[in-house]
Amino acid sequence: MTKNEKQITIYGTASFSFLNERDTAFGEPGEYKVTLIVPRAKSGELIRDINEVICGELKQQGHDIDASADRKKFYLDKAKKPYKVVGDEVHFKAHSQYKPVLWNKDQNKLDEKINVWKGSSMWASCKASGYTKSIGTGATLLLGSIQIDKLVEGQSLDNCPFPKREGSALPKPELKAVY
Length: 179
Prior knowledge:
The chain has one domain: CATH 2.40.50.140. Helix content is 15%, strand content 42%. The chain contains 2 helices and 9 strands, in the order E-E-H-H-E-E-E-E-E-E-E. It has helices at 44-60, 69-78; strands spanning 5-23, 31-39, 83-86, 89-96, 102-104, 115-116, 121-133, 136-150, 153-154. The radius of gyration is 23 Å and the shape is elongated.
């Protein structure tokens, strides 16, 4: 069987970004991930490409989705998708178990210490990959590398974000003997 995959590039604004460290909220070892927000008017080709991957997976499972447009819509509506339409936006979720290479718009690698935060705009190289599992048929976006267009940088968790202060503004606690 051939793998249903397609290479795509998504340009959007990060609303959820774990590009510098793994998201371990759902267990170890965690994964690198980003949710990119794309205007709905500019996401048609991306959605079409992802849906083509899903259709290829459905055909491999023996579904005759070419019989009618209603049949194709029925199966695509049930499929698991790596995107969600929210009003005038489409939220694309990409992930990887490997740390993505981060580039700036001048094609230079970003320093490892730079933290990419929510609000950064970027191009994400992804592979739309189809799957069939016990949870159903669908597609996932496997994250490759990232090129940052506009960086919103956060502070490193390794350094204290506060200035060094002299003395203490808090009163010293009184020590009382307890008998």
